[in-house]
Structures are given as C-alpha cells and as structure tokens.
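SAMPLE LOG
Freezer: B-3
Tube label: C17
Construct: single chain, 171 aa
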Amino acid sequence: MKTLTENSVTLTATQEDYLEVVLRLSEDAPDGAVRVTDIANELRTKLPTVTRTVRRMTEMGLLEHAHRQRVALSESGRKMARDIRHRHTDLVAFFTDVLGIDQPDAEQDACKIEHGISPLTAQRLHEFLEYFQKLSEDDQHRITAFQTDSNQPREQQFKNLLQSRIRGWRG
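STRUCTURE (predicted):
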C-alpha cells in the first residue's frame, strides 16, 4: 500500500516504518547514531533488505547514509517521521482512552492503520482527542459508557455482524 506524505513524496507503509524506527532509535541512542543492523533487528528484517531500503530512501532525500556508516534522518525525513509517530500516538490514545482497547492491541492496530489514514482524518482525530481531553469526567464517561457492554463473550459483543465475522473482520 502506498501513502502520500509531505511534498507529494510517495512512501510505502514499510518506508514509513523505517522513518519511524530510525527516529525512535536515534532518540534512544546516547550519541543519536543508528546502524543498519539496529534497523534490521528492530524490524526483524534481513540486512540486505534494510541496506536496499536505506539506499532507496537516501536517494529520495529522507535518510542520510554513506556506505558502512551510520543512518540519520534528513530534515524532511525527520518531519515525516514525527508526523507518522504523531498519527500513531493519536490512534493509540483513541483506541485506549475512547474505545477502551488494551494497550498491546491498540499499539498493534495503530501500526496497521497509521499508514492508511488521510491527513484530514489524522487532523480531525487529533482535534477530537484534544476536545475529548477538555471534557469533564462525566462528559467523557457519556462517550465511553458503551465500553461496559464489552465484557460480554465475543459472540454477544458482535451482535451486528454475521456469525462468520465474529472471529474478526477477516475471520
């Protein structure tokens, strides 16, 4: 799946994951240095695949990398990585705070969805979360009250789905 990001640069979900991982690793490293092997370990990907992807993203101007040197985000790559992380964080917050999804599931779902939402949807989600946080506890509870019904067995939770879909959307 391809997604459009800043300046009409077309990135795949995998390339967006690379930006996000390089950002996180560079922030976590004491010297800010990221090695190709660090990226491979984080993404559970083989070194040749990471090397090819890093080379391509360097040609696109998103990463800075010389042969056998550290990997760094370019200025535009850093901005895109922060935008991707922001979408991810907002999705996780929506899933946990509003929908009542547990953290591990919310993280996993956010990783899948963050690449497919439009900038407008991401912005509206962010605005909703800001609005939601400003509400009183009572008003927040009115929005999240449906969660109390979610403690039922799965068969009863998905009362509006066909029986074949109860195991999940692709079940």
